[in-house]
Amino acid sequence: MSDQEFELEPRLENQSGPDLAPGERLVESFSGNMTTYVKEHVLLAALGSVLMSGILIYMGNPHAWTGIVGAVAAIAVRGVYVAREQLGFTWYLTNRRLIGPGNRTILLDNIDKVNVIFTAAQVVTIAGDKYMLKYQADAKATQAAIDRARRA
What we know:
This protein has 152 residues and is an alpha+beta fold. Helix content is 41%, strand content 22%. The protein is elongated.
């Protein structure tokens, strides 16, 4: 068996543009947006700060401010560490299918619905599989584009 058969998560360096079938045309592509990514991480850091400080206060810790520092540091390190990969993945919408990282392919006929969850568009297949197009600048516009292609 080849190494690619064991790939659990797609790798950014393995991503290339889609190979289109005869008669298939590219309609749109969707990549993560840096501004959206940063805003989401700032929100996570703020929520984490409140939560951690609240827990420390509840526990009687006189240094509740450390919850703020810890939460902000943790989210910042995580954000910097995974930014390149999370923002680098591109999904391609054609007139026949949605092609994601790692050549994940979803035929448009197999899409049951597209949901918006914060800054992500979640594609749900008829079989119940779920795929996230994360950090979209306008997740509702992404949802609308996929829905338009499904109806065409």
